[in-house]
Each structure stands twice: as structure tokens, then as C-alpha cells.
Amino acid sequence: MMRIKDNSLVSALPAWFLNLANLDIRALQKQGFIIFPPNLNESEDLDEQFLLEYKNGDYRTTNLIGWLAEGDDKITIHSRFDDEKSDFFLNYMLQKVLKINVINFNLGASDEQFYDLLIYLFPYYLHQALKKGIYKEYQRFEYNDFSIKGSLDIARHIKKNIPFLGKVAYQTHEFSYDNAVNQIIRHTIEFIKLKQPWNNADFQKVREVTLSFKKSDLSKMLSKKISIKNPYFHEYIQLVQICKIILRREKQGIGENKNFVKGILIDASWLWEEYLATILRDYQHPKSNESLYLQGHSGLVRPDFYNDKARCIIDTKYKKVDSGIKRMDRFQIISYLHYRNATRAGLLYPGNKTKYETEGMLKGYGGEIFKISLAIPQNCESYESFSKQIEIEENILLRELEKENKL
What we know:
The radius of gyration is 26 Å and the shape is elongated. 35% of the residues lie in helices and 22% in strands. Strand 4 (52-55) and strand 5 (58-61) form a beta hairpin. It has helices at 15-18, 25-30, 88-98, 111-130, 154-160, 180-195, 201-209, 218-223, 235-252, 268-277, 327-339, 383-405, and strands at residues 2-5, 9-10, 34-36, 52-55, 58-61, 64-70, 73-78, 137-145, 151-152, 168-176, 263-267, 290-291, 300-301, 305-307, 312-316, 344-351, 355-361, 368-375. Helix 3 packs across helix 10, helix 4 packs antiparallel against helix 9 and helix 6 (180-195) packs across helix 7. The chain has three domains: 2-133 and 179-269, no CATH class; 137-176, no CATH class; 279-405, no CATH class. Residues 251-257 have low confidence and may be disordered.
């Protein structure tokens, strides 16, 4: 198994991985890759991002981390802040954002860890899908009673109702929640409950609508072709894909069906932003874009974080910023500063030391441009040690912001 880092130059890669260069996320999703977060609109510019960028003769990884496989050949992309033996930083961000226990998870340790990651992410995918409502579709139901409500089933009627005693065999097509999609989700829920005793309201919603559920139907459900034709329910497509991977692993064992999955890709930039939302409690974290204009036009902006009292804007960047703020990033935060009538705007990024640096004061309407980094602990002996050290750095970060904001 090859282990590489995000946002880094890479070489000596297998041909199948090089073939993925300059393919955007939507193209990879169509090839069967699982993408996290599942809704590409949640992550700014994720749909335009490459897994592997080829430029000027060099291959470079991006903000995407994850697990990829082609048969027995596997590659894992890790955070550049994690070492060769652990994924403490990834663990920590997942734990904070998903509010679950992901201690001692190592993406590259074994295939088992890959499946464990899917189990950890399953509740999030389910919750995102259920935001559209419980999936329903037309189902065929067969009846044999005294009140015909659908089309007559002549063959079944002759078989069941001769001599005729008043009953009629017929069938109907009705919208139903008790369908193949929800059944395979239910099978996954029951499997996960054996390993993780999560008390999840979304699990209960699925249980309530899958009244015909039988554990013995698992093989039948896995062999069934499940299609979701209504684009409104597109979030269910990857959810069903994850269900089948988890359940096939239990049914077949790891390695017996090596080609049914290409891999899972996690947008570390989105994860970094959502992690920071758990500690920047004095800042607003808008979830939707706003118009630049008082009326008309379509220009949209969305600063990651802002504090109107302190008149401060923070934009998060997971990529490397140590060498300075890039031109387009500078223009972006200047536009945020003017749009929200702020006095300060800057970038917050992961680094080797927690520190606040002023880039300069703007001419014209004024305003300060800054950058601030959060130190990611290195060479920790355990996850517990990592957690304690990064909590110290988080407090330093908050004190630095409070001092500069003069709150």
C-alpha cells in the first residue's frame, strides 16, 4: 500500500492513479468514488477540484484525502500534518464535526479501517438524505379480499378463489416508504447497531417505515438492482452505495470482491472549516451565499466566518499559506471586508505554530489584512496526547483573536 500526503508533489505512482489526473470530483463520482461531504454544494469549489493535478510536468495532490484501490493495489492520501503511523488530525476533525468517537483510526492500516470509516460516515450520509424526506416510490401490492381497488389479477384469482366465495385477487401500484431503498438502509442500520450502539433518531425513522423487514432477506437485497430515478432524491444514491459496501463486506469478507469499490475521498478543506466552526463560537458561520447587490444581479458571496461586533472576517484555507496570501485569496477577503463593512479580514489555516500576522493596511477605504495559523501537534505518542496538545493551541488561537479584536 502506497501512502502519500495532501497538497504535495508526488512521483512513482501507478498508471491507474495517474489516469485520474485532472479529473474533477463530478467525473470521479460518476466512476463510483464515494465523496465526502456527499453534497458537493456544501464545499466551496469542490466540484471543480481535482484529486490529482498535473501541471508543468509535475503531479500534485490537492485538498482531498482518502483511500483508493484498483484490485489489490491501494493508495492512501493522508493529511500532511499526520505522520506515517497515525491519522490523529483526521481523527480529531472527524470526531469534532461528526460528534462521534473515532479514536485510533488509521486510514492506511488495513482494509478493515476503510470499512470502519464508512460506518462512521454512514449516519451523516443518512441524515443528509433524510433532509429530503424519507424515500418513497411506487410499489406493487397484491391483495385478495372482498373490495377490489386496483387491476384484476386473473391468474391469481382463478388459483385462489375457485370456487368463488366473494373474494377478488387484484393488484395496485401505491406510493410506499417500505421499498428496496429503505430496506437496504435498514439492513445497514441493524448491522451497525451490533458494532456501534448509537442512539440515532434517523435510525428510528427508517425502522418505523420498514415494517416488512426480515434479516433473512439480506442476500436477496444485495443481489437486487436498486435504482433511484427521481433526481430530487439524489442524496440516496451514494447512501445506497455505502450500504452495499458495508453489507457486502459482512457477507463476503474483505478481499473476496476486490473491484466493487474505487475508494472514498474526503474534502479536507470542508472538514477543516466545519471543525473550526466548533471552536469559533463568537463568529457567525453562514451556510448559504448572499447577494453582493441591494437588488438584481447574481453576484454571490459567503465569508466562512464573521463577527459583526468585532467587524472581523475570517476565511478558512486548508492549503499551505505559510509563504503568504495568494493574489486571488487576497482579492476575495478584501471583497468580504468591503461587503460586510468590516475593519479586518484574514485567513485561518493549519500550520506549525499558532500565531497572528498582519499582512498590511489597505489604502483607500482602509482595513487590515491578516493571516492566523493554528498549530497542529506533531510526533504525538497517542491520540489522547494529540487531543490535549491541540486543545491548548485552540485556546491560544482564541486568545489571539480576542486580543486583536479588542473584545
